[in-house]
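Hypothesis: this fold can be encoded by more than one sequence.
Test: take the structure tokens below, design a sequence, compare later.
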């Protein structure tokens, strides 16, 4: 499943919108449009709750399913 995430980078707090992430690592033709592989919906929800306190280099503030 694919999701659009919004958030910001931890290093400089630059915001981003509608970055495509997916819960699987696939060699599909659209790999170039994928920002991050391996985030399931539950992991995205957990990252939103944890905010800054994740191992990710960015903070996710919201998401939608594609």
């Amino acid at each position: 499943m694919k999701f659009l995430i919004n958030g910001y980078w931890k290093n400089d707090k630059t915001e981003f919108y509608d970055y495509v992430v997916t819960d699987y690592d696939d060699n599909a033709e659209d790999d170039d449009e994928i920002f991050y592989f391996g985030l399931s919906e539950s992991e995205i929800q957990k990252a939103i709750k944890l905010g800054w306190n994740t191992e990710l280099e960015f903070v996710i503030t919201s998401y939608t399913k594609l």
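Helices lie at 41-50. The first helix runs from residue 41 to 50.
Hypothesis status: open.
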